[in-house]
Amino acid sequence: MVRADAEQNGRVFMGIEARAIQSLALFKAERKSEAFGAIAACLRRAERPGATRVFLDEGIDMFQLIRQARSQTALPDFGGIILDIFEQELGFLQNNGDESPPAYLRLSPRELEV
């Protein structure tokens, strides 16, 4: 309902976020094939506006969902970009023991471009 309302009223990022959360809920409910299809569709929708933060903010569970989905289904290239950013952030955390990555890793590709 939230997703449909957001998409009908032109709130692109809210619609993408609703799709991402729905995908994650399916994944956690062990409905993996549905989750993989849902996250692939969500990533396709998110690629044009470059909505990386939507996925990164969901943390390690989203990383695992996208990583497993990539091994089971064809994901858009944007999925690989998201995984790369996650791996940079996770690598930073593992190497430095810090709880938060540097600010530049929290920015979207579009934000970095500007």
Low-pLDDT stretches: none
Beta fraction: under 5%
Q: Can you count the helices?
A: 7
Q: What is the SS-derived class?
A: mainly alpha
How many runs of DSSP E, i.e. beta strands?
A: 0
What is the helix/strand order?
HHHHHHH
Query: What spatial form do the alpha-carbon principal axes imply?
Result: globular
Distance between the termini: 34 Å
Give the helix proportion (percent range): over 70%
Largest pleated sheet: none
Instruction: Return the average pLDDT rounded to an integer.
Output: 79
Number of domains: 1
Task: Give the C-alpha Rg.
Answer: 14 Å
If you had to describe this structure to a student in words, what would you say it looks like?
This protein has 114 residues and is mainly α. The chain has one domain (2-113). The chain has helices at 2-8, 12-28, 32-47, 52-56, 60-72, 77-96, 109-113. The N and C termini lie far apart (34 Å).
Summary tags:
single chain, 114 residues, mainly alpha, 73% helix, 0% strand, globular
